[in-house]
């Protein structure tokens, strides 16, 4: 069985823009366990339930957990592993001898899950986290652009990062949607490219890091 772990940004984007059946199709089609950590659950459900703006979103996600579509990872070592990875990632880049805070607890927890329960695919929509895991040079350039100052890379933490995450595939919610569209996860709509375009733009406007040229390439 494959394991797919979702960060807060991707699960929010997908649950706000997809039918519940999408996740059922994905789980059955690829024989996958769909995972979220307690930190992601607390952010997207427990905290969101207190907000009138995000309450419906919280009910959607909670329904997927309660129905068994998503599995909530519970492990006594997860918090320690998460804090360890936070220490690595947030001491990776330095400005004036101060570590730059790159990610939050929820994103770090997704990576930490891999230490406890090895995963095959990490779905993350937030650009900074993706660069952290895929391309440190791009991350460094991004942070320098944001802060308008040179940034120094800590080689010791870079080595820790490489050993921590391993060779896990990384994807975005848009790539899952394109796969689902091609596999007929949306009966009656999987021949309509306008529907796919609408989904992709909804995900982009929900925060997924994808540019218009990539969307255009998905529609060819």
Question: What would you note in describing this structure?
Answer:
By secondary structure, the protein is of the alpha/beta class. The chain has one domain (about 1-220): 3-Layer(aba) Sandwich (Rossmann fold), CATH 3.40.50.1010. It has twelve helices and eight strands. It has helices at about 10-15, 20-30, 40-45, 55-65, 80-90, 105-115, 125-135, 135-145, 155-165, 175-180, 195-205, 210-220; strands spanning about 1-5, 30-35, 70-75, 95, 100, 120-125, 150-155, 170. The strands form two sheets. It has a five-stranded parallel β-sheet, sandwiched between helices. A hairpin with a 2-residue loop joins strand 4 and strand 5 (about 100). Helix 3 (about 40-45) crosses helix 4 (about 55-65).
List the helices and strands and how they pair.
Blueprint: E1 2-6, H1 8-17, H2 20-29, E2 32-37, H3 38-46, H4 55-66, E3 70-73, H5 78-89, E4 93-95, E5 98-99, H6 105-116, E6 121-123, H7 127-134, H8 136-147, E7 152-153, H9 155-165, E8 169-171, H10 173-182, H11 193-205, H12 212-218
Parallel strand pairs: 1-2, 1-6, 2-3, 6-8
Antiparallel strand pairs: 4-5, 4-7
H and E string: EHHEHHEHEEHEHHEHEHHH
In the residues, how many domains can be counted?
A: 1
The CATH topology label is Rossmann fold
Biggest sheet overview: 5 strands, parallel
Question: How many separate helices?
Answer: 12
Q: Any idea what the radius of gyration is?
A: 18 Å
Which architecture per CATH? 3-Layer(aba) Sandwich
What's the CATH C level? Alpha Beta
Strand content: 5-15%
Strand order in the largest sheet: 3-2-1-6-8
The CATH fourth-level homologous superfamily: 5'-nuclease
Q: Globular, elongated, flat, extended or rod-shaped: what is the shape?
A: globular
Measure the end-to-end span: 32 Å
Compute the number of strand runs.
8
């Amino acid at each position: 069985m494959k394991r797919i772990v979702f960060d807060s940004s991707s699960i929010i984007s997908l649950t706000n823009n997809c039918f519940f059946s999408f996740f059922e199709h994905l789980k059955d089609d690829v024989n996958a366990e769909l995972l979220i950590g307690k930190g992601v659950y607390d952010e997207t459900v427990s905290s969101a339930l207190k907000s009138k703006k995000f309450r419906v979103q919280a009910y959607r996600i909670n329904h997927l957990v309660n129905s068994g579509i998503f599995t909530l990872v519970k492990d006594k070592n997860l918090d320690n592993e998460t804090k360890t990875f936070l220490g690595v990632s947030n001491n990776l880049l330095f400005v004036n001898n101060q570590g730059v805070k790159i990610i939050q607890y929820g994103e770090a927890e997704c990576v930490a899950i891999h230490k406890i329960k090895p995963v095959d695919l990490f779905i993350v929509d937030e650009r900074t986290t993706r660069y952290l895991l895929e391309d440190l040079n791009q991350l460094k350039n991004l942070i320098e652009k944001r802060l308008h100052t040179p940034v120094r890379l800590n080689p010791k933490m870079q080595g820790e990062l490489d050993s921590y995450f391993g060779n896990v595939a990384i994807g975005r919610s848009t790539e899952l949607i394109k796969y689902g569209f091609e596999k007929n996860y949306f009966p009656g709509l999987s021949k309509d490219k306008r529907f796919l375009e609408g989904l992709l733009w909804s995900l982009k406007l929900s925060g997924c890091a994808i540019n218009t040229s990539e969307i255009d390439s998905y529609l060819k």
